Amino acid sequence: MGLPVAVTVLGICLCFGVTFGNEAARYDNYRVYEAIPSSNSQLKLLNELEQSSDSLIFLKSGNNVGEKFNIVVAPHKLVDFTEALQNEGVRVRLLETNMQSLIDEEKQRMVSKRARGAFDFNDYYELEDIHAWLDKLASQYDQVELLEGGHSFENRSIKGVKVSYKSGNPGIFVEGGIHAREWISPATVAYILNELLTSTDPKVRNIAENYDWYMFPSVNPDGYVYTHKKDRLWRKTRTPYSGGCFGADPNRNWDFHWAEQGTSNRCNSDTYGGPHAFSEVETKSLSQFIASLKGKIQAYISFHSYSQLLLFPYGHTGEHASNHNDLNEIAKATITSLAKRYGTKYKYGNIYDAIYPASGASVDWAYGTLDVKIAYTYELRPGSGSWNGFVLPPKQIVPTGEETLDSLVTLLEESDKRGYYENCEGC
User: Fold this and answer.
1) Domain presence at residue 187
2) Domain total in the chain
């Protein structure tokens, strides 16, 4: 997380431990709290802590009075943190006493799984395992073509595949793992990819064979590797910046209304948008690859976690997109379909209103720059009432994949009914 930083916020000195050499960040006895502001002054305090403190990790942030914040707090700052909130009258609830115990359990399962040499959907996998699996699919299936959507700062491949059963299909671009710690995202992309190749369900076969699929499980490879090797809760890229901090938020770095809303200009913030649009080689090179497919892609789907939301443009403004009504109706049908299998309830809406203002996102860029009019972001399991969405138990991978694929079938059916795939240039 960079060099030690001391920041004074409202009279509190907040300092955060760091990792050096081969050491990994640990969260022994780090507590997780839920805080709910009941006034604008309380909301202001929480927002200031989030923007100014490197000692607190905000797993979830509220945008309005009455919305939950989930915050990881280091042991040596428990007193300062709780007193600051109590002095302002913020309601605080302890959710977890030892964040590290969850991370240790997760890692032990992964070590055991890797020793057996399996690749299935009952656990999470490291980047090299995912890439090896993509290579294997390309050798097994004539319909699978390896792709490189760019590269990372540390020169890792942004590896993906194209699945195509016939020429002339409209294209669907699927992006996973842009935020490194959201492991359910690459796992869900991999699950859907596997089903497109192996499922015998007629509805799945229909979308598999009548669309071209550009599938990229992990578009922030450096960050994803870092979550496995160094810091499980890392979100950003790994580009070094002055002041001893690293990385920008790759979903605030795209060149579409960059840095207008919901973006920090502080390098050590999780929502740092970078020094300029496309400052990160990951977003720049991936955007160039996607732009080369202009006319071939009719839908852009991005997977994140968590909160159980289906979002669509825009994030930089509350003004509605040109086909807002269609996107809204398609989203409603999609989340209705998703809920049928397990009863998982999603909410939906444009990004700005449904979750929070956020500019420079990939989905907005695809919509606004490449004119891809079917553009959605999934915030996968768990719901907003949970706090441990980034360390989601692996037993939820398959159910998440199943219900998400159900919903994708509906999303494509509903958008097809509205004529979104009729003008496929270059297909």
Assistant:
1) yes
2) 2
Among residues 379, 402, 403, 414, the one annotated as catalytic is 379
pLDDT in tens, 162-171: 999 999 999 9
- The residue range of the domain holding 254 is 120-417
Residues 149 and 272 placed together within one structural domain of the fold: yes
Residue 273 has pLDDT above 90, yes or no: yes
Whether residues 365 and 236 fall in one domain: yes
Q: Please give the structure tokens belonging to residue 99.
A: 């964040």
Nearby residues of 64 by Cβ (< 8 Å), 6 or more positions away: 43
Q: Tell me the sheet residues that pair with 383.
A: 307
Going through 203-355 in order, the beta strands assigned E by DSSP cover 212-216, 240-241, 245-246, 297-307, 309-312, 347-350
Residue 96: in which H helix or E strand, if any?
A: strand 91-96
What is the rounded CA–CA span in Å between residue 153 and residue 156?
Answer: 7
Residues 216-240 have pLDDT tens digits of 999 999 999 999 999 999 999 999 9
Claim to verify: residue 286 and residue 201 sit in the same structural domain: yes
* 423/427 Cα distance (integer angstroms): 9
Same domain? For 252 and 381 the reply is yes
Mean pLDDT of 160-188: 97
Query: Does the annotation count 379 as an active-site position?
Result: yes
